[in-house]
């Protein structure tokens, strides 16, 4: 007998953790507290410094993390409590997206001499690979 399983989609749902891509809170995590309509959600991020506000979904990236059992339209203290219980910060730090953002930030802070050193190291690595082949 064939078993039907639901796909592992990232749905817009209460408790879904989002990464804010644009706006005043760009680069921060927040939690969807309520769904206003098909384009806007009410978000809150009491532990990340995001004030409770509405956000257009165009400016958010849905993450695979969900704050479990978060009640709909929960207040900031409740969101903070469930956020800490779900241990979202450590899950986010271990995610590939957070690592990629950290490496981008590091690379953007390089000065000219640091970029030169990186190019020399890449050149050394290429020559070592060519010798090994």
Automatic annotation (TrEMBL):
Keywords: Cytoplasm, Ribonucleoprotein, Ribosomal protein. It is found in: Cytoplasm. This is Large ribosomal subunit protein eL14 domain-containing protein. Component of the ribosome, a large ribonucleoprotein complex responsible for the synthesis of proteins in the cell. The small ribosomal subunit (SSU) binds messenger RNAs (mRNAs) and translates the encoded message by selecting cognate aminoacyl-transfer RNA (tRNA) molecules. The large subunit (LSU) contains the ribosomal catalytic site termed the peptidyl transferase center (PTC), which catalyzes the formation of peptide bonds, thereby polymerizing the amino acids delivered by tRNAs into a polypeptide chain. It holds the Pfam family Ribosomal_L14e. GO terms for cellular component: cytosolic large ribosomal subunit; preribosome. SUPFAM superfamilies: Translation proteins SH3-like domain. CDD domains: eL14 (cd23702).
């Amino acid at each position: 007998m064939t078993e039907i399983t639901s796909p592992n989609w990232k749905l817009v749902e209460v408790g879904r953790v989002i990464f804010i891509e644009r706006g005043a809170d760009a680069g921060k995590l927040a939690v969807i507290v309520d769904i206003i309509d098909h384009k806007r959600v009410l978000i809150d991020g009491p532990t990340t410094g995001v004030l409770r506000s509405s956000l257009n979904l165009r400016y958010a990236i849905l993450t695979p993390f969900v704050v479990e059992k978060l009640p709909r339209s929960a207040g900031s203290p409740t969101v903070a409590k469930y956020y800490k219980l779900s241990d979202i910060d450590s899950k986010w730090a271990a995610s590939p997206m957070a690592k990629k953002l950290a490496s981008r930030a590091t690379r953007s802070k390089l000065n000219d001499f640091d970029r030169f050193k990186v190019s020399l190291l890449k050149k050394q690595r290429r020559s070592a690979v060519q010798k090994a082949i």
